[in-house]
Automatic annotation (TrEMBL):
The keyword Transferase applies. Signal peptide: none annotated. CDD domains: OAT_like (cd00610). One of its GO terms (molecular function) is pyridoxal phosphate binding. Belongs to the class-III pyridoxal-phosphate-dependent aminotransferase family. PANTHER family: AMINOTRANSFERASE CLASS III. It comes from the Eukaryota. Gene3D superfamilies: Aspartate Aminotransferase, domain 1, Type I PLP-dependent aspartate aminotransferase-like (Major domain). It comes from Tilletiaria anomala (strain ATCC 24038 / CBS 436.72 / UBC 951). Its cofactor is pyridoxal 5'-phosphate. InterPro entries: Aminotrans_3 (IPR005814), Aminotrans_3_PPA_site (IPR049704), Class-III_PLP-dep_AT (IPR050103), PyrdxlP-dep_Trfase (IPR015424), PyrdxlP-dep_Trfase_major (IPR015421), PyrdxlP-dep_Trfase_small (IPR015422). Keywords: Aminotransferase, Pyridoxal phosphate, Transferase. This is 4-aminobutyrate aminotransferase.
Amino acid sequence: MSEAASFGAAHIARGIGRMSTHVLAKGQGSYLTTDTGKHLLDLTSGIGVVNLGHCHPRITAAAQEQVGTLVHAQVNIGFSLQQIELIKKVLRHVPDRSLDSVLFWNSGSEAVEASVKLARAATGRQNIIVMQGSYHGRTMGTMAMTKSKTIYSTGFAPLMPGVFVTPFPYYSQLGVAPNTPTDKMVSLCLHQLRLLLAQQTAPSDTAAIILEPVLGEGGYVPAPKAFLEGLRSVCDQHNILLIADEVQSGYGRTGKMWAIEHSGVRPDILISAKGLANGFPLSMVVSRKELMDKQGPGSMGGTYAGNAVSCAAANAVIDTFEQDKILDNVAARSKQMFDFLHQLQQSGSKAGKYIQDIRGLGLMVGLQFSQDQGASSSSLPAASSDSTAALYLFEVDGTKHAQLAPQVVQECLKRDMLLLSTSTQDVIRFIPPLTITEEELAQACKIFKESLEAVVSRL
């Protein structure tokens, strides 16, 4: 551990969890460089933030120019030219033309809370329905809406009231076999939603249903088209608003600008953050003007909302998508990754036998390990008390098993690659930059294979 890392470990709040003790000093494209000169291949993109890679030259230049022009154009005082230009560009790419009114904020959590305020103001109702396994943030409001892990809200009650949970069509959460037909899971989940509206939160009390079109922290599970269509139908029937939380899945991550475009379903409210400004703090809520106009002037706003430098960076992000054919690369690299993972799964190797499910869209890819082949915890080395690679345990038929994903992450780290696990399930998530090259992705696949083989060799 470097001197800088030791200082950080001693003085940074313990509530911040991290996967490594590296001090990240420089980034370029798909790589990060530490303060000790180590080069790391980054398959996390800062958890889906630097979608166009670290320090993209066009985005860097736009931000640098704006810093020398105007840094802070406070949104409650006036407009900024960068903000107006960004709205024009955003409206060219919305998933439905009915979405014509924009609010800029700073973080994903703030945008989610803003969407709740909007839904309540627009409908005059208070309750919000969220999905089992969802992640919407860690602020006081969004903690109540996040249902992926209890760690995010443990010890912080009482949480925001008026939040109800409905199942998401994901086999691990429904307790059914991995090969359960999708239409059966969708039917079950829509039935439970209708029961929820009949038994727990009346439609007349329900402002909105919010979901991630690809379940993020909950396991990287795309919402089936039929499920999204069913949600839209329920919302239309009861005048409930449908909110698409695309904080992680938006801005090209799934091969389209917005993940919900794969279904053709119209959201009433769309949320974006993370990749919106490629690392600069910026989030966004887009909805219909008729809904936005139900909020009185002064009810929304914030000191740094729609910061001019962040907006300049976001303008350059859209320019890059339009000029550099980013989505073409996403399609090519997505095929490359899925082909590799399926070949590994079907190889007959010991490593391949532990791969239960491969899923995702574009370069938002989840790999779930098989729980029924997991080694018992007694056969695995215990993690040291100061280790960031704690062996998460799950239980099958009374036997405790160690999750493979956190161990694979640490093996990748030993081989100078950053990768993340996710959810209470045993899942690896691949989030490389959308600009990653064929050669870089091939190297990443090689490191992943070696790391998985190293882990399963100990079982």
